[in-house]
Amino acid sequence: MVLSSKGSTVQRNMSSSSQWERRFPLSPPVARGQRNSSRSVPDMDPFPFPTTTQRPAQAPASALQQLQSSVPARQLQSNRSSFFLTERGNSQFISNGNAPSQVIVNGNDVQKKHSQLIATRQTKSSGQITSSQTRIERAPSNPSMAEPKISAGKSKIEAGMNDDGQLADITMTEAVQYLSSGDVNYQHYGASFIQHSTYSEDKAKQEVLRLKGIPPLVNLLKSPSPQVQQTASAALRNLAFKDAGNKEEVQRCGGITEALALLRDTDSTETQKQLTGLLWNLSSADSLKPELVRSALPVLTETVVVPYTGGVDETNKNLDPEVFYHATACLRNLSCATQSNRQAMRNCRGLIDSLGSYVQDCVAAERPDDKSVENCVCVLHNLSFQLESEAPALFSRITALAGTVSRANASAETGPIGCFSQQSSKIQEQESHFDYPVMEEQHPKGAGWLFHSKTMQSYLSLLRSSQREDTLEACCGALQNLTANQGIVSRVMSQNIVQKLNGLPEISRLLQSPNPSLQKTAVALVSNLAKNQRLQSIMARQTFPDLVGVLSSWTKEGTESDDTLAMACQTSHSLLMKEPELGKRLLSNNLVNSLNDLSKNRLFPKASKAAGVLLYSLWSEKDIQSFLKKQGMNKGSFVNDITSVAHRSVQVVE
């Protein structure tokens, strides 16, 4: 069944255009970021923000005048120079394969790891469903969906509050002036007031921006006082929460550079949390992603991701799980970016290996719902988008082996060689049937992990055990991307998933998911797998019943998308023609009536056409037609004005 021209492609772009940020709440319960997609928002736990600095005494008028007139904007200078990476240098490398890194962690109970393993937003394309040769690719996972903001778990006086629990009786103008004081107590008090004010009222963010309070806050990141550094980081984090203007201002005055420099130097867990939370919030701004990929990517990888997962020596084993979660959330946002940004992340030394290692270790430890695992698999999913076309050198081993097999068969007088089926006559089938997983690299590096069987096994394990829908969709989407093309690579990946890893049971159950986005991704993956003729028999037995369930129940739920139903019709037709005897047992009156209703539904233009073609094709098969007549069904249910028009339109396209 063909719904558009033969050989045309369907490519899925971004799962969502939403961004994920977080701020630091004043006190539980934690405010959740607003999401602008159907995806679920990860849980957000409050962060303690301890401090010992006392509120300074009220400054006399003369002191305030001095603050207004004589203190330079960047008065505090530390003994470390400004830090800005223009090149990754040793922190990145070009490997023979891209290495995605997405991992799940259980709350704060995260163990360190020691093995390997979506910047402009893209939008969903209007995919057209074609024949069994359709290319259906799924782009990066949606970026982080809720910005973090921060609160301070301090006493009233320490937090810049009075005895009634209200913010102290100073103005925002005074708080901003305090930031440029030579007294660290004033600096800390001003930063604390701004932190709390910007958490409570969005208008406070605009006031700080108007008063030019962000540059001195950035300057305080270089303060010799750890407490001032921490409070300034927290205030900047809240200022950047869901405020595009403040994000731009932080970047304009060097905030990314200073935050990264401090992240490299500080040993304070709380400061690390605030800095990685700030970077997470900044990463949701498309305009900042190029700089963040250039400068923050290597720093986060070297100082957080690799040490936390045990990818290098045993240093930094005291990193907090929340720091790793923030860092991977930032990387998740950056990975849903442009091709150049994806390539930079694929080539970042140790990134994909560490993320993959973390995922594998969490799977082994039976922690599939760890929130950092979700971030990790989303990064890996995003980096698998258009992988074959953007990094063809990664697949040279597969293509070389396939070429050898093809030449051997071309020169042979008799049937196929080695492990080929005796009934194989098509070069496509011959090429796709060599045992690649036996020959693949046992210890790949970097991007090579993105399509390795161990990584795909982790995806399938998560599909079986995780309850987090974003994790499930990312795993399913990564497998969809790896099987999206027409050539030998996608056929090998498909056989690996179905025959070597026995992944159909995990994939098939997602076809009945009540989540429309997850269901659509699962149907698209099944459609990709069904392109491989060698897999159609086993898929007919294991997957066809679930596809029939989608088509039989669509009118009851009403949540399926046009693309989902169209792909389900197309794939059902392929499997039915491959195993007609099995198909006969599933061709019930309920299914036929549902397909008829769908063919008449103009709200689903692609699905209605696909249903019409499927019905017409069923009656055209003499053996199936005979069966249908015995069941008391008549020709009018299959061949009528609607289905005939659909059939003719396909014939014209062909």
UniProtKB/TrEMBL annotation:
Mind listing the UniProt keywords for this protein, alphabetically? Cell adhesion, Cell junction, Repeat
Among Pfam families, the record links this protein to: Arm (PF00514)
Task: Specify where the region named Disordered lies, as residue ranges.
Answer: 1-75, 120-149
Determine the domain of life of the protein's source: Eukaryota
Q: Where is the composition biased (Low complexity)?
A: 50-73
A cellular component term from Gene Ontology for this protein is:
cytoplasm
Entry keyword Cytoplasm: no
Under the heading InterPro entries, the entry gives:
ARM-like, ARM-type_fold, Armadillo, Plakophilin/d_Catenin
Major place of residence: other
What PROSITE patterns has UniProt attached to this entry?
ARM_REPEAT
Gene3D superfamilies, per this entry?
Leucine-rich Repeat Variant
Bias class Polar residues marks the residues at 1-19, 120-134
Q: Which GO terms describe its biological process?
A: cell-cell adhesion
User: Protein name, please?
Assistant: Plakophilin-1-like
Its taxonomic path starts at: Eukaryota, Metazoa, Chordata, Craniata, Vertebrata
